[in-house]
Specification:
Blueprint lengths: L3 H8 L27 H4 L23 E6 L2 E2 L7 E2 L3 E7 L6 H10 L5 H9 L2 E7 L9 E7 L6 E3 L2 E6 L4 E10 L5 E11 L4 E9 L5 E10 L4 E9 L3 E10 L5 E10 L4 E10 L5 E10 L4 E10 L6 E11 L5 E10 L4 E10 L3 H8 L5 H17 L5 H13 L6
Parallel strand pairs: 1-6, 5-8, 6-9, 7-10, 8-10, 9-11, 10-12, 11-13, 12-14, 13-15, 14-16, 15-17, 16-18, 17-19, 18-20, 19-21
Antiparallel strand pairs: 1-2, 3-4, 4-5
Length: 411
């Protein structure tokens, strides 16, 4: 298998390797990477896209949202709603040109990493999405950050970066979505950093709706302070290979996180979800519930680790991964882990994988419903528990339309 360094050198002409990537170690031997085969990615040479910003309103563009639109990694001011004042910073900004101190302080925190793909993101990213709310600022409208890849003659690479910071008492809803007009090969290598300070609240939704030949590698890092709250849903469908790593630090007492995930794979797609939640102080609570629907010869991997530090007494943590396997050739590797060093805690974990229960199908058929419709009803019921929790309504309805238009096949 080609190494990361060799791949980078093939993607960029001699002497044009960005940053210090030529010296980056191939740091993919750890447990968290063992279920992600990067060889198919490393066999593809990607280029950086030119500035092709000619695009109409995207399919997920809602006029009653605050929209931040990035086309091939470049911020589209004409399609976006930028807000810049002393209390609120919402928009797309160039890390090389914009000198706002709020942006500079974030970059100081996020530019240090041992992750090769994060280093690649830092080296290549030019325009980034920034949301910064001062103390007690409430944003009522949903903020929708869209990353769109358009058609190119060659495989292209983009490296989106998102920086979210909520000061004490502030709150907002953020939707982060990725989709492509291109049916060819392209790589999205994203990095999101979220800091939620004391008594602040964020509703955060991340949607992967990319092309069948696309690759997606994404990292989301969340830091929750005292009494902070994270409500989140991750939805994934479409990419040939996708991997999302979510790291949550429960750094403040009485902080809470509720994280839901739904993924659907078909053909020979592979999806990898790596989640780490660290309870570091007393009186914190986390709920982690993921679901998968696998068809054809697809593969899914789930690795969830709940860590409870010795001082983190009174922790409550729930972790669950459930999978519907619709084909005898589909496979899922699921590994929920609890690592607990405190004794006064309530922690639970579990995982299931299997076909739809025949008795449930038989029950519906006995009520006059044909087998195909009965199967679809049961799959939709399985998925709706995740989708029902999404607010804004427009996003929830759109995901339902995707689910209803899916042609589920039992093999």
């Amino acid at each position: 298998m080609s190494s990361f360094v060799n791949w980078i050198e093939k993607c960029f002409p001699a002497g044009d390797v960005p940053g210090n990537l030529s010296g980056t170690l191939d740091n993919f031997s750890g447990e968290e990477w063992k279920n992600t085969n990067l060889s198919v990615l490393f066999e593809t040479n990607f280029i950086l896209p030119g500035a092709n910003l000619k695009i109409s309103k995207p399919v997920l563009y809602f006029d009653d949202f605050l929209n931040l639109v990035f086309v091939n990694g470049i911020y589209s001011e004409s399609l976006s709603n930028t807000i810049v004042n002393k209390d609120v910073l919402i928009g797309g900004f160039s890390k090389n040109k914009d000198k706002d101190h709020r942006i500079a302080s974030y970059l100081d925190q996020t530019d240090v990493t041992n992750d090769p793909f994060k280093e690649l993101n830092n080296a290549i990213n030019k325009d980034m999405a920034v949301i910064s709310l001062s103390e007690n600022q409430i944003i009522d409208k949903p903020i929708h950050i869209m990353f769109i890849t358009t058609e190119f003659d060659q495989p292209v690479m983009t490296c989106p970066k998102i920086l979210l910071k909520l000061e004490p008492g502030s709150s907002c809803t953020v939707v982060e979505s990725y989709f492509g007009e291109s049916q060819g090969k392209y790589l999205t290598n994203s990095s999101t950093t979220i800091e939620v300070n004391d008594s602040a609240k964020i509703n955060y939704y991340r949607l992967l709706l990319q092309g069948a030949d696309s690759f997606h590698l994404g990292t989301v890092d969340v830091d929750l302070k005292a009494n902070a709250s994270l409500e989140s849903t991750f939805f994934s469908k479409g990419s040939k290979l996708s991997r999302t790593e979510l790291n949550v630090l429960m750094n403040g007492s009485y902080s809470e996180s509720s994280i839901n995930g739904l993924y659907h794979t078909v053909d020979e797609q592979h999806i990898d979800n790596v989640i780490n939640i660290d309870h570091l102080v007393p009186n914190t609570k986390s709920n982690l519930i993921y679901k998968g629907i696998l068809e054809d010869n697809s593969r899914a991997s789930y690795s969830g680790k709940i860590f409870v530090a010795q001082d983190a007494q009174k922790t409550y943590a729930l972790q669950s991964d459930k999978n519907l396997i619709l084909s005898d050739k589909a496979r899922v590797n699921t590994k929920p882990i609890l690592e607990i060093f405190a004794d006064d805690v309530e922690c639970f974990h579990g995982a299931t994988a299997g076909a739809i229960a025949e008795d449930a199908i038989f029950y519906l058929m006995s009520r006059g419903i044909d087998k195909k419709s009965a199967t679809e009803m049961l799959i939709e019921a399985f998925a709706s528990e995740t989708i029902d929790g999404i607010n804004p309504d427009a996003i929830r309805q759109y995901l339902y339309s995707i689910l209803l238009n899916s042609k589920f096949v039992l093999v």
